[in-house]
Design a protein that fits this description.
single chain; about 450 residues; alpha/beta; Aspartate Aminotransferase, domain 1; Aspartate Aminotransferase, domain 2; 2 domains; 16 strands; binds pyridoxal-5'-phosphate
């Protein structure tokens, strides 16, 4: 029987792993973990070791691995129709999913355009927004605004609306850069200030840019409430209300990239709900299929849709992906929505989050912890350390304690699947502190 080492060595020869300096795998600085199977919150290797998947396999998994209800839905679909072209053809799962997603926005975003990954959904929103203005005889409105520290994917188009230094340095020459506006990062609050004050200040910065550039700007793109890859930066919903009002005043679309924040992650089904607003575009992926299959969607309004509706092909939206609206992925998404409805997930998460927050207090109060923060089912804390390899040290120490956590720089964060029981949660909280102490030692 093949062992961990066999798979590891073969993988290192043949697989170029994402977001990875491959040399670190070879040197052992970053251990590669071969996974044989997953069950619930746990991943198992080929030798019986287990790891608690505390970041939902890169923010995608909501209801655990090998979830019986999602498995059953995919199996059922497999015997009916695995895939069909979505240009000129349609099928039940994509129709039902579109109807249900639209209903979840109370019909405000009634038109669903599909792709297979988050970045593509963002690109769809960007293209649609700019094409909308073109259809409105305002083709000069084709620039974008994004927040400092934002992340919207890693294709060339989405890197252009991102603000992660590492990528800008390597791929900057290939990008068409958006204008960055201040992030409402609540950590910027000075003594006596609240997150709402920071939101107002950031909105003033947005307005200053809009005053000058609105005539050439198509849209502002934001990660509502939590900027993920930028370091789990959290901010007050007030910013979204202010940004919505400014976008309306200056005739600029608001794109909500909820690829990470959507599906209950921030405490409501969609993050923008907490601000009582609706975006013009809503991008979803990751949790959409509960992390089962690649699927993404950009939802938009009847107004946007109507501007493309015409006899001329050039006024239509010009975009397609081979696997657009894949039926198996749509069934996984429908099963995911069923679980939300049947299990009252958002309310259950709220109770869990309060308990887990208590369990994380030793970490919050650790002498090296700064800015411990939570929004819904996301926890993050910045670790004060001068260790340049803190991220790798923590990662290794966590794995050695059966927990899978993957810090962003010196920010340790938790994005657990929604099915953790209290014993698993307690184990996670306890071992995270032990891993931290070991990493800092
Ligand atoms: C992950 C992510 C993306 C990109 O999604 P991919 O499926 O990795 O292309 C875009 N925006 C946000 C906010 C994300 O977290």
């Amino acid at each position: 029987m093949a062992t961990n080492t066999d798979w590891l060595n073969r993988s290192l020869k043949a697989v170029w792993h994402p977001c990875t300096q491959m040399k670190w795998h070879d040197s052992g600085a970053l251990p590669l973990v071969p996974v044989a199977r997953g069950q619930g919150a746990w991943l198992y290797d080929f030798e019986g070791r287990r790891y608690l998947d505390a970041i939902g396999s890169w923010w995608v998994n909501l209801f655990g691995h090998a979830n019986p209800r999602i498995n059953a839905a995919i199996r059922d679909q497999l015997d009916r129709l695995e895939h069909v072209i979505l240009a000129g053809f349609t099928h039940a799962p994509v129709v039902e999913l579109s109807e249900r997603l639209s209903a979840l926005t109370s019909g405000a975003l009634g038109h669903c355009f599909y792709a297979s990954d988050g970045s593509s959904a963002v690109e769809i929103a960007l293209k649609m927004s700019s094409h909308y203005w073109r259809n409105q005889d305002q083709p000069e409105k084709n620039q974008f605004l994004c927040l400092t520290g934002s992340y919207h994917g890693e294709t060339l188009g989405t890197l252009g609306v991102g603000d992660v230094e590492l990528y800008k340095e390597a791929y900057g020459p290939l990008m068409r850069h958006a204008i960055t506006v201040p992030s409402p990062d609540a950590r910027q609050a000075a003594d006596g200030e609240t997150a709402v004050d920071v939101a107002h200040r950031a909105a003033a910065g947005l307005e200053a840019v809009l005053v000058e550039h609105h005539a050439s700007v198509a849209a502002l793109i934001v990660e509502p409430l939590v900027q993920g890859a930028g370091g789990m930066v959290m901010y007050d919903p007030e910013y979204l209300r202010l940004a919505r009002a400014l976008c309306d005043r200056y005739q600029v679309h608001l794109i909500a990239d909820e690829i990470m924040a959507g599906f209950g992650r921030t405490g409501t089904l969609f993050a923008h709900e907490q601000a009582g607003i609706r975006p013009d575009f809503l991008c979803l992926s990751k949790g959409l299929t509960s992390g089962y299959l690649p699927l993404s969607v950009a939802l938009t309004t009847g107004t946007v849709y109507a501007s493309f509706y015409d006899d001329a092909v050039t006024r239509g939206f010009l975009h397609s992906h081979s696997f657009t609206g894949n039926p198996l992925a749509c069934r996984a998404a429908l099963a995911t929505l069923d679980i939300f409805a049947e299990d009252n997930v958002v309310a259950r998460n709220q109770k869990f989050a309060e308990r887990f927050n208590q369990m994380l207090q030793p970490l919050a109060q650790h002498p090296r912890s700064q800015h411990f923060r939570r929004r819904g089912m996301i926890w993050a804390v910045d670790i004060a350390t001068g260790l340049s390899d803190f991220r790798l040290r923590f990662y290794r120490e966590a794995l050695a304690r059966e927990i899978f956590l993957r810090p962003l720089g010196t920010t340790v964060y938790f994005m657990p699947p929604y099915i953790l029981d209290d014993d698993e949660a307690a184990l996670l909280a306890e071992r995270a502190v032990a891993a931290l102490d070991a990493a800092l030692a």
